[in-house]
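Appendix B: complex inputs.
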Amino acid sequence: MAAILKAENLRVEFRSREAAQGTKVALRGLNLEVNAGEVFGYLGPNGAGKTTTMNVLLGFVQPTSGAASLFGIDVRQPIARQRIGYLPELTYYYKFLSAEELLRFYSTLFGLSRLEADRRIDELLKLVELEHARKRPIRTYSKGMQQRAGLAQALINNPDLLVLDEPTSGLDPLGRMKVRQIIQRLKGEGKTVFFSSHELGEVETVCDRVGIIHQGELKVVGPISEIRQPRHANLEQAFLEIIGFETQSAS
Amino acid sequence: MKTILAVAGVVIKELYRRKDFYVLFIVTMLICLIMASVRIFNDDKIIRYLKELCLLLVWVSSLVIAITTTARQIPAERENRTLLPLLAKPVTRTQLLLGKFLGCWLACGIALVCFYLFFGALAASREHQWPLLNYFQAASLHWFMLGIVIAMVLLGSLVFAAPSSNSTICFVVVGGILLLGRHLDSVALTLPEPVRSVFLIIYYSIPHLEFFDVRDLIIHDWPLIHWGYYGLALIYGIGYMVVFLTGASLVFRRQSVN
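Resulting structure:
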C-alpha cells in the first residue's frame, strides 16, 4: 500500500523564552508512514509530541530538520492540504456564524461550487446530526455539537486523509460514541484517518495500526495485535509498558 | 481571490453581528443630533463649529472601529484556535492576512458610508445644500487613511501578543501622527545633530495621515482638491498599505501557529 503521509527523520526544537531553560526537543528524528485506507491511532502521554507531529504535518510548525509530505507533496506547499481534513483539539468556531455558514465559508476555501457546497453541507449536517440546528449560531451549541460541527468542517472537501487531534476529548459517552461511529463509517468508505487519542478502548475498536510516541520518540508502530502481546490484558497495559511506566514506578 | 473574499466576508459578518459597532454608531448619531439641534444666535460660524465637532466625532469613532476591530482579528483566531482549521485548508498566510485586511477595510468603509450619510443629511437639513463631490473626496480620503491604519494595526497584532496593548500603541501612534506629524520637520530644524537627523528620518518615514484629513472641504465648503493631487494621495496611501501588509506577511510567515 502507498504511504500518503510520510515523516522522515523529523526533529523539532523549541527555544525556550527563558535563556536558562535552553531548547526543548519536541520530536527526535521521527519516522512515520501512514498508508492509504487505514485508520492509524497516534498514542502517547501528554506532552509526548503528538500535537507537534500534527502541527508539522499541517505546515503550522517548521521542523528543525527532516521532511514531511502529504500525498508526496512537501507539507510547506498549501496544495498539499487540498485533499486533507483536519479537526484540531478544543476549537471554538466562529460563534457568530451558524453551522451552515461555517461550512459554506470553509467550502469556499476549497473552491467548491455553490451547488456542490449545498450538497456537501446537507450531507454533512445529516452525518453529524446537526440538521435541526443548521441555522442557529454556534454560540448556542453544546460542546458535543461544536465538536460535531468541527468534524463536519474537516469533511467539507471530501478528504482522502483525515487528521483528527483528540476528536473525543471532553465529550460525554454519547458524543464519543457518535464520533467513533463517524470514524468507522469513514473507514468503511476507504478514507485514511490519522488520529491521536487518550481513549485506548476507542483506539482498539477503530484502528488498524497504532504508533506510540513518548518524549518525542516513536517507540513502536504496528498493528494492535502485534503491540498487544499475550502477557498484556489490554492495549492500556501494553501502552504503559512501552512508555516505561512500570519501570519508573519500580525505581 | 475567492479565498481572500471569503475571509473578508467573515470579518464583515462579525462586525455587523456584534453590538459594539451599533453602540458607537448610535452614540455618535445622538451626539450629532443634539449638537445639530442647538441654535445659537442663528450664526453661520456656529453651524460650522458644530459641523467641525460632529466630523471630529465621526473621525474618532471610525478610528475606534478600525483599530479595535483589526487588533482582535488574528489574536482571536489564535485564542479560539480557529486559525488551525483555517490554515489546514489550502490557504496561505498571506491570503489570510489580505482577507482580514480587506474585511476590516470594507467594514470600515460601510461604517463610514453610514456616518457620512447621516452627517450629510443632518448638515443638509440645516444648510439646505449638499456638495456631493466634497463629501466624496473627504470620505474616500478618510477611508484610505483608515486603510493605512488597518494595515498598521494588522502588523501590530502579529508583533504584540495582546490586542489591548496593540490597540493602545496604535491609538497613540495614530494620534501622534495626526496631531504632531506635520510639525516634526520644523521641530527637527531647531535641534542639534544627531537628534535632528533622527527626527527627519522619522518625519520622512511615517505615513502622514494628516494628508488625508480634508474635513475643511465639508466644514468650510472649500473648493475641491485637484483630482491629480487626490489621485497622488490615494497612491501614497496604497503604498503605505503595501509596506505594512508586506511586513505583516513576513512576520506571520516566520511564526509558529500552535
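Chain B touches chain A at residues 2-3, 5-6, 9-10, 13-14, 17-18, 80-82, 84-92, 256-258 (CB under 8 Å).
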